[in-house]
Amino acid sequence: MSAFRRSLPLLAVSSALAAVLVTAALTPRATGAPSSDALPAAAVRTETDPELQAVQHAAERASLLQWAAASSAAQAAQAQAAAKAAAYQSSPAGQTAALRARGIPCDIYAVACVSLSRQEAWLMRGGRVVYGPVRVATGRASLPTPAGNFHVWYKVVDGWSTTYDAPMPYSVFFYEGDAFHEDPVTVRSHGCIHLSLKNAEYFYRFLDYGDLVEVRH
Predict the structure, then answer these.
(1) How much is the average pLDDT of 121-133?
(2) Which of 10, 138, 194, 205 lies in disulfide reach of 183, CB 3.0 to 4.6 Å?
């Protein structure tokens, strides 16, 4: 028997074994993950699936609507806060607070304002300072200028103090014998409010009967 004939059975066995191995490789294992053909249709979803895209779009829209609502609410709150701030600033309380922040101790209704602690005075109209601050000299410790709200009740250009027998040019009386008038601002008074000549004349011409004078500590 020739060598070729003796090798034929071995070739047949090898071919059969190779066929078995190829078949096993191409056939899914029973214990492994099922192929896509074996899964239900609802379980197979891809990014191009219309239903999946619809769900994703709905979620994105809901998120955008939620963000827009939150942004709108924040803007509305900011607008409301700004409106409240503007209303307060234009109110008597807000305008008075603005005066206090500037060191002016009176409210917006004062026409003449005097600070005893700072020895200064202002003329005002409608809550706005129109003149001042100017330096003043108020009453000494034994005869202090009273603090409070007063009104102009008398004016005289050539005033004269009968109590102290002294001139009181450009007198504007606001409390009994106490008045704004010209006198040295380096000397404390007996209760009046001393002004320089220029300022005394300005106060005299600006203030009128009934005007509110506020004297504050």
Answers:
(1) 97
(2) 194
